[in-house]
Fold this sequence. Notes:
Elements: E1 3-5, H1 7-15, H2 23-37, E2 41-42, H3 45-52, H4 58-68, H5 78-93, H6 100-112, E3 116-117, H7 122-127
Parallel strand pairs: 1-2, 1-3
Helix pairs in contact: 1-2, 1-3, 5-6
Amino acid sequence: MITLVDTTVWSMIFRRRTADLNPVENTAATALKRLIQANSAALLGVVRQELLSGMREPIQFERLRLLLSSFPDVTIVAADHEEAAAIHNACRARGVAGNSVDFLICAVSIRRSWPIFTLDRDFVGYASCVPIRRYAMDSP
């Protein structure tokens, strides 16, 4: 099964040292490695952009760009953006704030029936407004 991986998880594995991870993050890193090995980890272009943004050194940027180059971007269509806007509106109506990238992740997840692998607690709030599924790290 394809799993849509959020910036928080990619960042943890590609931008942080393993020694700096807490036990939950270590479990998440292991789960992401399992998804990668199964060719089941999906990456959005806007998530790629978030990951590459803020790299201090050009050599760090290039190293990460090369690592991410083996993951093709999920093709986004107009209906995904329209669904993201509808999710924004649904969340706002219930007092749940978010950002465009997160709402696009939710839209892609819903439209393709893919779970979202994230450590971002904001997605708990989104799930109270729209039918997203979060990836369970203990999944095979």
